[in-house]
Amino acid sequence: MLADRSARIPKVCYEIFVRSFCDSNGDGIGDLNGVTSKLDYLADLGIGAIWLTPIHPSPSYHKYDVTDYYAIEPEYGTMDDFRRLLAGAHTRGIAVYLDLIVNHTSTLHPWFTEARKSKDNPYRHFYWWMTQDQIDHLGISERETSDDSQVVYPWHENPGDDEKYYGLFFKGMPDLNYHSDALREEIARIIRFWLNDVGVDGFRLDAARHIYPEWDKEQSITFWDFFSKVVEEAKPGAFTVGEVWAETEEVAPYLRNLNATFHFDLSFALQRMLLAGRDEQIVDKLQASFNLFQKYNPLFVNAIMLTNHDQERIGSVVGGNIRKIKLAASILLTLPGQPYLYYGEEIGMLGMKPDPYIREPFLWTPDPGDPQLTGWIKPEFTTLKTVAPLSAQTSDATSVFNHYRTLIHLRNTEPALNQILAPNLQPVRLGDDQLLAYFRPHVDRSLIIIHNLGDTERAMTLPDDKSLFTEVLFSTDPLHETTLTTNRLSPHSSVILAPAGNARAVEKQ
Ligand SMILES: [Ca+2]
Ligand SMILES: [Ca+2]
Known about the structure:
By secondary structure, the protein is α/β, with parallel strands linked by helices. It has 17 helices and 18 strands. An eight-stranded parallel barrel has the order 1-2-3-7-8-9-10-11. Strands 12-13-14-18-16 form a five-stranded antiparallel β-sheet, with helices on one face. Strands 4-6-5 form a three-stranded antiparallel β-sheet.
């Protein structure tokens, strides 16, 4: 039964920041028809699902402040364009997840423009309102900053009003108040519209841990009882993946109602390990996480990523070092769970904060006048001087792109690698913290994966019970092409080993 359920869960996902991905009409802004034109590309890469950052009408460039949940942002296209995208994706076996922002709206959303008019407006209770006295009495005028919000003063003036409204992320993003049943009914309608009338496959859920404010925090977990019930009734099997940007212990309870949560602790641990060249007992930590997640949901999906649109790009984290960029991919794509690639990772895109510069245009070709190239921002990090465009990488067997592509296809075809439910992962103890080694047991064929995280060659000796794992299924180390011929592993190299007597795929370096 686990295998049946697993088969329906997309294996490798791809996050698209729509504005920066591909332009179809020459206005320099990435759009839905641009995404549709790249579905063959994504299918060839081996992608099973795409997560589109918000596509609803919004005054901001990132569109995380929605003004209409039933429409498409005109800069990105029309509802017909979206339906074509969806149909094209489904034809290719690619699921589509919509980024749904239910924590807050734009101040320009009609609910808020109504709510701010007066205390007796029917939409007033869709948001949080308090007088300064009430705020002071509860001691909630200031908050401690968190990874996902640097805001200290979350209460904002509504001119001419003695009550302030609560906006955790920004004064232009008032938080919705789910004590209102009328609001819950509106959200349920929106869910049903996208799942049933339009036909999306699931949602990526923004700010899932902030649905209720900090003083009502427990209710942020129970909110998802309501949400998942609506989803399940509307479209059984629709997928939900939540952004719970917090430590693993705080993330776990959200899995009671969400299929998946992003593993931020893992993302940061991988980044630290790549920088330090040392393992942090990550396999033991993952096993502990899985045990915890399992208590809340035996069918939990661990959504793993190197970075996303809110984090500095992995390429820049490792200083643009191509070997480390490949090593990062080798680790991500051999761990259990459902990996999410952030668009452009597969060509080694670079980017550091502020946010717009971790969301730069995808480089399709070396032509600065390429009509597909988005131009809403002048890139600072990913330029033709620093990153080889996709068209140059496809024909280069040693490129970052072909590294990703080979690994994704290996993951898609190797049951031990693509197991998502009941993650199969055990440590392989090699007694050297510069080596990261793990075992992926599977009835079809078990695999051992070994990475050298550091910049010196290391010796390795497999434990006695793993000594038959000498067939090289995949390697970035020229020392190991088809069989484990020496017990050395080159700097920043990875090998995937199968029991002797199996077929193999070897990557050129
Ligand atoms: Ca456009
Ligand atoms: Ca909230």
